[in-house]
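thread: overnight batch results

M.L. [08:02]
morning all. the overnight job finished for the chain we discussed friday. pasting input first so we're all looking at the same thing
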Amino acid sequence: MEITVEELTRMEADDVVLVDLRDAVSYEYGHIPGAVNIPREEVSERIKSKEKTVCVYCRNGNVSLSVADELCEKGFRAVSLTGGYFAWLRLHISEIDTTESIKKIEGSLTKKFHRDLFAPFVKAINEYNLLQPNDKVAVCISGGKDSMLMAKLFQQLHRYTKFPFELVFLVMDPGYSPENREIIERNARILGVPITVFDSNIFENVFAIEKSPCYICARMRRGYLYSKAKELGCNKIALGHHYDDVIETILMGMLYGAQMQTMMPKVKSANFEGMELIRPMYLIREDDIKHWRDYNNLRFIQCACKFTDYCTAEGCKTSNTGSKRKKVKELIASLVKEDPQVEQNIFRSVENVNLTTVIAYKDKEGVRHRFDEDWDNSPKGDGE
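M.L. [08:03]
and the structure it wrote out:
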């Protein structure tokens, strides 16, 4: 049995047990108010009452329908939310007054979140020299919280500074479903961001790839973004990677890539002459982004890719997508409980590299050097 979002909103909260079947990361990213997060295989064990209506939902309503049927067979009064979380999300954002939302969002960046968001945004731009006079920047928006916040921060900077630069808010549709694209476009209106959307067929090209589809997809997306940005007269593209992305990348490189590297605040494009990639969110913490999102009652998509849609429809428990980053994120969180300085130490570790204390390294040309290649002329150590 199914129930629509409109029917759900008319039901008394005390009469319904609302269950989110998605993974914990998706639930944390955004969920229907009042919902509890329970894996599909644990629902019948953890829901005790058979007197209330159990409304289960997933990403788009495919998995939840079979779970509702299973619960009904076990004596529960269960229904599946038609269209899932995305159906609720589309209705939620369609009811928002855009005039009021823009005023509140911009006011929050000027006052409440100035220290935690706008100040580190400006600091990164100054410290890493990310903007020069008369730059034209393509602010690349994926539809998630990070890139949407970056767009607003750039708007604020452009509005309140006399520093001359131009902005294009660029959204690439690599093959979103109509529902996902609608959510991105509606959220852009809620934030007051005038987006430029262009299409590509990347999802179709990478969908059948079994090994590292997300890595290949990301590389292809970046190439399309560079190309479109250059076509529009931009000399830079801006991506929404933040401080937590940086430290996770450092550890991932060590643990899974056997290398010491970081996510750089800016990079010159190897394939598009005169183009650069900048990361102005480099010093912003993810928890502060979430705080801003929740304070303004904003709901963004986590991932709108075809692979995720397919995995959800097929009822996959997990995928390899992002699993390594998730493990590293959990590792860092566990270490921080013992020592709050861990995150800062990881970040600074790539600023304090002493080449005399590493076995080997590569120079700018990619030439490998060993510590003992000029041993006779090398300086003395610390007395070991």
